[in-house]
Amino acid sequence: MSDATVTSATSSATIRAEEAAHFGKLARDWWDPKGASAMLHRLNPVRLGFVRDAVDMHWGGDVESLRPLAGKTALDVGCGAGLLCEPLARLGAAVTGVDAAFENVAAARTHAEGAGLPIDYHAGELDTLGLGRFDLVTSMEVIEHVADKQAFVVQLAAHLAPDDGNGGGLMVLSTPNRTPTSRMLLVEGAELVGAIPRGTHNWDDFITPDEMRDLLQHAGLAMGEPRGIAYSPTRGLHLSSDLALNYIVTARQAA
């Protein structure tokens, strides 16, 4: 598929065509833990650990269960080639993945089929796909890439299951914080040395936790306490109280 085709197919309210094209070019390499998406491979276990704890807390499930999402539906928006979708499926969820880049969705489908995982993938603008509502909605390292951040959060909220007496749906978001630390390490550092592909980040698009709280509140959601995703040479990427680099947070319908 040509870049021109991608641009034509993905221009919309929240999708930036140039962002879809950038990530679509990485599709073939997405599942290589030493390739262009190596940073996501290192980040994924940290995010997944947070999601697992949030799921157990939200639904009061058995913390020893290997399939805490059994009987539940999950939607991952900005799913790339499925790095989070596949472990969510293994945790028991009926998973749907959405991405702006058709190339990513094609790679995700191929990989899921090879792993025997029945994940439902779609390419395009979320609110045009008619996917319904989900128990769990995730969107990791995505909001900093969208054109209209408030519209994007409203779309996510519209796909969250309503509160039917068990707390309703759970949302989990992660994104870089807009700080001098993130500028130095993620943009000027990681991209400069090739740890992240050049052009991946625009520091001005990063969102602070206070801005995230406002976006979620406008969409009728209450944000939980954010947890930082920090880096150290001895521990690598890990959950932390330090929000300066990156953070991950839950949201649910406001009371």
UniProtKB/TrEMBL annotation:
Its EC number is 2.1.1.222, 2.1.1.64. Gene3D superfamilies: Vaccinia Virus protein VP39. Pathway: Cofactor biosynthesis; ubiquinone biosynthesis. It catalyses: a 3-(all-trans-polyprenyl)benzene-1,2-diol + S-adenosyl-L-methionine = a 2-methoxy-6-(all-trans-polyprenyl)phenol + S-adenosyl-L-homocysteine + H(+); a 3-demethylubiquinol + S-adenosyl-L-methionine = a ubiquinol + S-adenosyl-L-homocysteine + H(+). GO terms for molecular function: 2-polyprenyl-6-hydroxyphenol methylase activity; 3-demethylubiquinol 3-O-methyltransferase activity; polyprenyldihydroxybenzoate methyltransferase activity. The keyword Transferase applies. The keyword S-adenosyl-L-methionine applies. GO terms for biological process: methylation. Pfam families: Methyltransf_23. Belongs to the methyltransferase superfamily. UbiG/COQ3 family. O-methyltransferase that catalyzes the 2 O-methylation steps in the ubiquinone biosynthetic pathway. This is Ubiquinone biosynthesis O-methyltransferase. It comes from Aurantiacibacter arachoides. The gene is ubiG.
